[in-house]
Amino acid sequence: MRLVLLGAPGSGKGTQATRLKEALRVPHISTGDLLRAAVAAGTPLGQQAKAVMERGELVSDEIVLGMLEERLGQPDTRAGFILDGYPRNLAQANALDALLARLGQPVDIAVQLDVDTELLIQRIAGRAQAEGRADDTPEAVRNRLRVYSDQTAPVIDYYRGRGKLACVFGVGSMDEVLQRVLGAIGAT
Ligand code: AP5
Ligand code: MG
Prior knowledge:
alpha/beta, 5 strands, 59% helix, binds magnesium ion
């Protein structure tokens, strides 16, 4: 199963991907996690990405695609994968399709986690207190939400237009949402 998880900051992409990888037995690939690891390791790529991420803006398409290409080249992705945080704009959606076409592994389905903005802000505020992620400050969160509606929301229509979109209501317990996602992708 090759699955793309779409949704605003705080919609539960990471939370659901962690559960889905157990259920589907495929790796969870989060471009945000890969970038945070590069920042923490202080690699040249991480040094470039750090300030951009802290402002809540998108890291360049080129950097992220290179990172993703390397990850998708690893053998554990042959069974499939769950992509979390990619694609984030139409250029990335096109680049992903081209890359996966080359690998002969097209996306099966994109799942959009739908959560209203007020709850997103509440969830991220909760995480900010618990974990202190560098881009969970009120200003960065405002930017992330704006970037999402300007640049990422069109990706939903991209998959809808290709008959590959499933929308899932993302409010409820984490397990309730998981069951909805599994139902939407026909994996129950
Ligand atoms: P990224 O790491 O992808 O962050 P994000 O999209 O802003 O999303 P979050 O990780 O904040 O939310 P989530 O949907 O994973 O929700 P979660 O499960 O954590 O990207 C970070 C940055 O990296 C970007 O801003 C950009 O700079 C850069 N980047 C990444 N990918 C890029 C790309 N492709 N191109 C360019 N730049 C890129 O849940 C949130 C909270 O809610 C948690 O505390 C969780 O416990 C809680 N929660 C979840 N589900 C529930 C539930 N059902 N009930 C109650 N609480 C819940
Ligand atoms: Mg996440």
